[in-house]
Write a structure and sequence with these properties.
- With about 120 residues, this protein is mostly beta strands.
- Helices cover about 0% and strands about 55% of the residues.
- It contains no helices and eleven strands.
- Strands 2, 4, 5, 6, 9, 10 and 11 form a seven-stranded mixed beta sheet that branches.
- It is globular.
- The model has no long low-confidence stretch (mean pLDDT about 95).
Length: about 120
Amino acid sequence: QVQLVESGGGLVQAGGSLRLSCVASGAILSNYIMGWYRQAPGNQRELVADIYASGTTIYADSVKGRFTISRDGANTVYLQMNSLKPEDTTVYYCNARRSTNSLGYWGHGTQVTVSS
């Protein structure tokens, strides 16, 4: 059974940086899409960034030029977040899925808080 565990969240000042990490266990995910989503309480979940097995990446318009997603082997994914803004404050979730049409597996989330 696949499990995803996020880490790296915390409190940072506006303009600062954080790096989120996600480590998967229970299966080899070399052919999976892995990515990061964020969701504030009561709001819709939204895509932040995806990375495909080929290395192709997709970013939300709101984070382009500031965030970078990367992958280390089959089961680890990172999100480097620079120039953080207070509006980036929310819970970030790691996702791994076989295709764009599947929900796949989810971590429990890590809190990111950006102070003004």
